[in-house]
Amino acid sequence: MTEQVMAAIDGSKFSEGVCDYAAWASLALDAPLTFLHVVDNHPQTAEADLSGNIGLGAREHLLEELSHLDEQRAKVAQEQGRLMLKAARERAVEDGVNDPAGRQRNGTLVETLEELQDEIRLLVVGKRGEAAHKASDHLGSNLERVVRTLHRPILMVPDTYRKPEKVMLAFDGSKTTRKGVEMLAKSPLFNDVPVHVVIVGAETGDNRSQLDWALKTLRDAGHEAEGAIRAGEVEATLRGYQEEQGIDLLVMGAYGHSRIRHLLVGSTTTTMLRKANGPVLLLR
């Protein structure tokens, strides 16, 4: 089965960013692009149940009417989804992608992606979804569940596209982040893009050895790479380096074995992703 770049879109303001970053990734990876829209037939915001306030006969009639409204609502949602997929494919073609596909499914986003993950080489999602409050800077609950469930690389993107010019990999020497270095070294996604490898910790012989290995692996594969070891609190140190160096894409392992593990499985994960102004690539 062909692995593809899959982009999840909805009616949120992040969908344009998802389209453009997905097109960039599809072209860089020379991989097919598929846009996915999931119609959730069980919205999280429940409507008031007024059926208990009326007589039995009228109640049965009202339930029939509510069922009819649900059917109509589902049809409208499906038609909206078809239009969004059409617009996304047209936008991707304008970006240079050849024959992008569109798929619409019923269900929940997390369950759908889990079912389709064998087809996914890279998943592109927005920082928040349509159901999130427009004034909120919090992550969508769907995104958090997707990150914890899916065993595929996930690119979380902002609402506006900017071609990545500098990439930073948060590295701790764990099996996951070493695999991340090897994935970056082999992947054409960041060809001709400088890669910064950053270890948050003390300047020890072991950390220096780990950093030297990462840089050599990337450079042997033809990448421009530089590295740093910085002491401090993980989140603040990574963000400070990112701002200092003008990094516009952050790469992290979704699970590690040191402080980066706690960063990405505890509440700090949400903080790190929520405060990110640019795209974040999570590796598994």
TrEMBL record:
Residues 1-158, 166-284 form the UspA domain. Pfam families: Usp (PF00582). Belongs to the universal stress protein A family. This is Nucleotide-binding universal stress UspA family protein. It comes from Halomonas ventosae.
